[in-house]
Amino acid sequence: MAVEGSFGILRLGDIHPVRMMGVINLSEESFYKGSVATPDRLLALACRMGEEGADLLDVGAVSTAPGSPAISEDTERKRLFPALVRLIDDTDLPVSVDTQRASIAKEALAAGAAGINDVSCLSDPEMAGAVADAGGSLIIMASGQRPGDLLEMGEIVSRLGQKIEEAEMAGVDRHRISVDPGIGRWTEEKSHLHDLAILSGLCRLRSLNRPVVAAVSRKSFIGHVLGLADPADRLAGSVAAAALAVYNGSHIVRTHDVGPTVHAVRMAEAVRGVPATSGKGDIEVELLARAGHPNDSMQTLRRYGAGSDAADILGAKMAFRVLLIQGITPMEALVIKQEMLARGGDAAVPRSALRCDPSADRALIFGSVAQMAGLIRKLKRQPFRLPSVAEKIEAALSRDDDVRRFCLEREA
Prior knowledge:
Helix 4 links the parallel strand 6 (about 115-120) and strand 7 (about 135-140). With about 400 residues, the chain is of the alpha/beta class. The chain folds into 2 domains: about 5-270, Alpha-Beta Barrel (TIM Barrel); about 275-405, 2-Layer Sandwich (Gyrase A, domain 2), CATH 3.30.1360. It contains 14 helices and 15 strands.
């Protein structure tokens, strides 16, 4: 289903603009010295970011760069709160606080922060409760024993899934939770190759159905690829990485450089388009995943010697689709599953559908384009609302190639 969430008053997700998060560092230990906001330039920096297109600010008082010294809670508090109060009082932008400590988070939310950005993946057992009690928003960054130490996307997705459930059990509204895969060389074991693989596979986070935060700004993997040791020289690489992150599914871009990044983000957002869906309010269908296109598959088959007739048939079998159908009855879900199975595809329906539980109102179907076409033909001849389901499946599949999916109008 389409990703939908919020951070403070900001609406996040597939049908909303990608949000620009301006970084304000209060720690002199930061890996990028040009981002450190001294008290005399704090408001000027925040206002400039707002003018350049920032939708929210992320302020932190503790550097998490490898080799940075440990900072006491008292030092974090002394650095953070004077700046936080000024940002809340003197700007109109929602403020996120980057902290791993629940005690700091509790005070920050009470002072007016919109949410917490926790790079430790809720390592403080009181963090989720503190956010829940304040009704705040929460960004969870993938981490195991140390911030950002997970190397592979598989373990990142699994860990974030666990922590989303943990936060929900503590009372955090799922709608207010976003996730961050933890790009960056947080540990010695993590190389630029791991970061490139995570950036390339960012779309896998869609399985969590939460807004995705991309924090790639001026990080070391960019320097390694481009041969630029100084973070100050990595602006162009950062802009390119941000655009790739958005194309691959990010909904928030955390950046030190709002102005130079925002146009690249808007272009990537336009090329990404919006999900291919059909139906509103009743039966809804969304294309969740696709692999291959029948026409392209036909060309491949012909190149390898298949006849035209065989290529036409096999091309539709080589292209694979995954669809989510919502707003149906348990009986309709079971019929759809049986019809997909009859064609060699499959479908997942809630267990409770067998008990005709009304909450079993959805089905996840997966199969080739040829199998989907057979399902559509069969459902159109069925009673009740199944012909309508068929029409919406057909519409969602066709919208994947519809240029209107790339319209620039998004809900604010």
